[in-house]
Amino acid sequence: MSDNKVYIFDTTLRDGEQVPGCKLNTKEKLELAAVLEELGVDIIEAGFPISSPGDFESVHEISKLIKNTTVCGLTRAVQKDIEVAAEALKPAKRPRIHTGIGTSDHHIKGKFNSNQEDILVRAIQCVKWARNFVDDVEFYAEDAGRTDNEYLARVVEAVIKAGATVVNIPDTTGYCLPNQYGAKMAYLRNNVPNIDKAILSCHCHNDLGLATANSIEGVINGARQIECTINGLGERAGNTSLEEVVMVLKQHKDMGYYTNVNAKQLNPISRLVSDIMRMPVQPNKAIVGANAFSHSSGIHQDGFLKSAITYEIINPVEVGADTSKIVLTARSGRSALAFRLKNLGYDFKRDEVDIIYAQFLQVADSKKEVRDEDLHQLAKQVTVIAQ
Ligand code: KIV
Ligand code: ZN
Fold first, then answer.
1. Closest atom, ligand 1, to C-alpha of 11
2. In a mutational test of the pocket of ligand 1, which residue from 17, 142, 147, 166 has the highest number of ligand atoms less than 8 Å from its CB?
3. What ranges do the domains of the chain cover?
4. What is the mean pLDDT of residues 200-210?
5. What's the pLDDT tens digit per position in 375-385?
């Protein structure tokens, strides 16, 4: 393993697909799996095979289709789940079973009515069962975010000894602050004697809007896999957004981390996922939102038109987005107006732009956005006055 490569584990087809209304059929899942492989993710979590015959079929068909990427199936710490997942993954060139159990008191007492020692035994057992079928077994300690670090370290050490190749530390409820999640990873790195035998993975939910920050903090503190979804889809407020973590690592090259993802495909795949899942992307979403590269206030527009880097840290071409937009509103200035008029083929002198600008502001005050058809009207009036 290269020390600085961060593995991208895409769970759009599993955690993302759990969103109400986003359920996919096998054909849709196959289409997305193929583009995820092209995008360059390292692992595709294709589904939860025991959950339904349809999901079993999807994982099975994706396992046949995918050439190089690891294909992963989720299970509970239940023998039957693991057998069914192994069956679904049989055709995969690189199969991974993702098994695990809740480790926080909320889960141990509230969900399982059990105790830490019995859960530890079940954790070891499920990894051993899974290792009977595949060499690559990822263990998840559900609700690790709210699990006591000392107990979590005991679980992590035990599951690695039992054969886990990756250990997932989910902040299932999106509760942790970045420094707390980072400290948890650092604690595991420093206190689990066999930690170098497995990859630590971040799986963060976005209930407090911290999933991306927490995942990055996890990497800084030793994790080398991030579990994420396209457009940040996932249970409740969603999972870590794939496009965000990939671009954070790419933009901050000084940190020294890299992924295998082809950033140019981020916007096309975002649109595809949004269409197939019928789930619109919020306009102000980082990297893939409709406004991610739009400039609408006069101060920003003027600076951007002088030099794009003044107000844009990412070139939209780099992430496969449309070119940057200069949106005209009542907050826009003369340089933006002149720019948009020029794009429409009008080459007005400075004093002519001044005249149009006064009328433009009246139109802009009465509308949310001044569009090309309005500009043609305004340009026509000035041309008439000038004659
Ligand atoms: O959020 C979570 O804890 C999960 C696990 C099943 C990995 O999705
Ligand atoms: Zn999750």
1. 8
2. 142
3. 7-276, 294-386
4. 98
5. 999 999 876 55
